[in-house]
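**User:** You know discrete backbone vocabularies at least as well as I do. Would you mind producing a protein record, from residues through to fold? Write it directly below this note and I will take it from there.

**Assistant:**
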Amino acid sequence: MNHNCSITCAKEITIGGNCNLANNIVIVDHDHNIGDTGVVAGLNSKLIYIGNNVWIGANVTILKGVIIGDDAIVAAGAVVRQDIPNCEIWGGVPARKICKLGERYVN
């Protein structure tokens, strides 16, 4: 884990073995509840699971309820709000699949 990473956990965050986490990563497993007049008491929390051998690039944000599969790569600057399967490379805002590991990326 590099410097300036923020992991904020209200329920559960699991990070597997042999992961590489770059600098300035934000991982948050909850949101604040919103009512008719703005923020109200309580949190809306869902677990986050990061598998084994995952590489998370610099300045990535991972939001509540996300599962990142084993051997996945998250490109720098991505905002992850949905699950990432094993052995896939994802990036962007919001994050989307770029390619599967072993496939050649063609833009």
